[in-house]
Backbone:
């Protein structure tokens, strides 16, 4: 695509540095006022003229050509009109020629990005609290891959901590192998909940649990075997969900993987004089940075979450030599990340600046928050199942003859749930409602999938083979609806990059919604199927390009697009 902003910048004869000038040029909100605008207000001082006059003067000096066909001075703005038909043609050609590679790039080649995401906890069911990290992390994984990066997806399992001592006690007191095999993680969860209920009245259980935890750490046979069993049960459970969500990891190295990898980093920090003793514990003082101290070794000698994260960051740098390491983790852990990033920075590790906490908000269901301890967790599996069930109802009502509707319902239901975690800016807390996320006419995944399937069916009706044509009858495309849709299609590649660089898949999901809405307006305004074949072909190219962009965009969000709906 031509870089119209740059082309326009070169036509403005203003006493400004080119880069600055370029930065003031914006796309117009309303194409009645041209395609790009340049405000002259900033020039008033240097040019010693009122902006209105500056605009008139600069407009006169603009040289028009095949790319920029008209300029108007309006209220202190320069409004530029580009060669729209050529723009539309270029935008469509770009999508049609690239096909499924549309939006891909090589900017990331030779660079490595680690993404720590989902990072579930052993013995806990996969609940809705892990939806956002899973959806956002997986989408970033796909986006960075499309941009040519070497991506390492890491599930930093929560598989270390005193809670596993509690699990062993609970299991030995109230559990049995058969039931655990049968009910899996749900039974583990039940035992965990029971432990907390009983612990309130029987404080000796807490001591018992502590002892078992020490045994796990020391590699005691019975303790390790039980722990390993808990771990395998949990992993079998979550892997089933990852499969449904089409989420992948390259590493499952969790917290316990660093059991024997903390000494070196601790020695290094000590060597640099960063660690001080405080009431028997070892800490890094962060007073100067307005943070509470980072606790690294407890008085009893055991390590902490932060110690493991420090060891993990150092290990990952050695192993992968990443350019960036992202942690997709809820904002509740803001302080934790700020603290250990700071510790690594104070240790003089120059790459500490490449660690990024990608924070996001909480997801909750209409009926309120969830807590594992009390046992009223909202399981992601239940949410997915319900979404699929409801999708099936809608599909049956809309299209009773659809083949393999179970599969389509799965794609729609799962897609709707994933999209709900990708539609907003990350930091927002969101409340999940089935009716909203499954609304086929709302700003939802089903709406995108439906529009995409609609593109397929229009092409099928026309009896056209794909990638058949790039438009020739340009007059058929000379209208506002096509122009506005094509502007959005042309914005797609940059949106993919922005989503990556801002760690914000919602930039892409928002654009997809805009594209689908613009497409539906185009489809109302412009008759696609007609006897005039050259007109039909031209408009079919718009339909096909839209289908390609929507399908690719959904794939980058980790969402499938059913061929038919
Ligand atoms: N398991 C943790 C949790 O569920 C998230 C771990 C995030 N990753 C990390 N390196 N700290 O809260």
Residues:
């Amino acid at each position: 695509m031509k870089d119209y902003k740059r082309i326009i910048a070169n036509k403005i004869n203003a006493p400004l540095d080119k880069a600055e000038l370029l930065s003031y040029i914006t796309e117009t909100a309303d194409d009645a006022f041209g395609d790009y605008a340049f405000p002259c207000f900033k020039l008033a001082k240097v040019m010693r003229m009122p902006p209105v006059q500056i605009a008139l003067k600069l407009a006169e000096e603009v040289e028009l050509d095949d790319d920029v066909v008209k300029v108007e001075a309006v209220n202190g703005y320069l409004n530029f009109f580009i060669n729209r038909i050529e723009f539309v043609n270029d935008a469509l050609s770009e999508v049609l020629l690239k096909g499924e590679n549309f939006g891909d790039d090589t900017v990331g080649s030779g660079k490595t990005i680690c993404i720590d995401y989902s990072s579930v906890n052993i013995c806990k069911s996969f609940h809705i609290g892990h939806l956002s990290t899973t959806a956002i992390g997986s989408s970033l994984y796909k986006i960075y891959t499309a941009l040519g990066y070497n991506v390492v997806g890491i599930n930093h399992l929560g598989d270390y901590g005193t809670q596993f001592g509690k699990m062993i006690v609970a299991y030995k007191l109230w559990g049995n192998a058969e039931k655990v095999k049968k009910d899996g993680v749900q039974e583990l969860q039940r035992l965990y909940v029971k432990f907390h209920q009983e612990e309130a009245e029987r404080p000796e259980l807490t001591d018992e649990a502590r002892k078992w935890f020490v045994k796990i750490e020391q590699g005691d046979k019975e303790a390790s075997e039980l722990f390993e069993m808990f771990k395998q049960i949990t992993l079998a459970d979550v892997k089933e969900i990852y499969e449904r969500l089409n989420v992948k990891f390259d590493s499952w190295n969790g917290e316990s993987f660093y059991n024997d990898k903390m000494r070196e980093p601790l020695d290094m920090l000590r060597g640099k004089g960063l660690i001080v003793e405080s009431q028997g514990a070892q800490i890094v003082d962060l007073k100067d940075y307005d943070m509470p101290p980072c606790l690294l070794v407890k008085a009893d000698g055991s390590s902490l979450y932060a110690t493991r994260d420090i060891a993990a960051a150092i290990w990952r740098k050695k192993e992968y030599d990443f350019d960036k390491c992202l942690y997709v983790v809820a904002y509740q852990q803001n302080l934790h990340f700020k603290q250990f990033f700071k510790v690594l920075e104070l240790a003089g590790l120059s790459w500490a600046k490449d660690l990024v906490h990608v924070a996001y908000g909480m997801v909750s269901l209409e009926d309120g928050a969830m807590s594992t301890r009390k046992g009223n967790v909202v399981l992601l599996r239940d949410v997915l199942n319900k979404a699929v069930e409801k999708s099936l109802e809608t599909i049956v009502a809309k299209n009773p003859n659809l083949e393999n509707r179970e599969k389509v319902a799965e794609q729609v239901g799962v897609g709707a749930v994933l999209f709900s975690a990708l539609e907003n800016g990350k930091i927002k807390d969101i409340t999940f409602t089935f009716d909203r996320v499954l609304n086929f006419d709302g700003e939802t995944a089903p709406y995108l999938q439906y529009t995409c399937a609609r593109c397929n069916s229009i092409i099928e009706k026309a009896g056209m083979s794909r990638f058949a044509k790039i438009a020739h009858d340009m007059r058929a495309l000379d209208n506002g609806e096509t122009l506005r849709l094509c502007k959005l299609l042309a914005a797609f590649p940059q949106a993919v990059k922005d989503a990556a660089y801002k760690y914000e898949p919602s930039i892409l999901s928002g654009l997809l919604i805009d594209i689908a809405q613009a497409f539906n307006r185009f489809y109302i305004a412009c008759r696609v199927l007609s006897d005039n074949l050259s007109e039909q072909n031209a408009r079919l190219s718009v339909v096909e390009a839209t289908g390609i962009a929507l399908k690719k965009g959904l794939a980058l969000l980790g969402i499938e697009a059913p061929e038919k709906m």
Q: What stands out?
A: DSSP finds 21 helices and 13 strands in the chain. Residues 116, 119, 121, 156, 158, 309, 312, 327, 329 surround arginine (CB under 6 Å). Residues 368-374 have pLDDT under 50 and may be disordered. The radius of gyration is 28 Å.
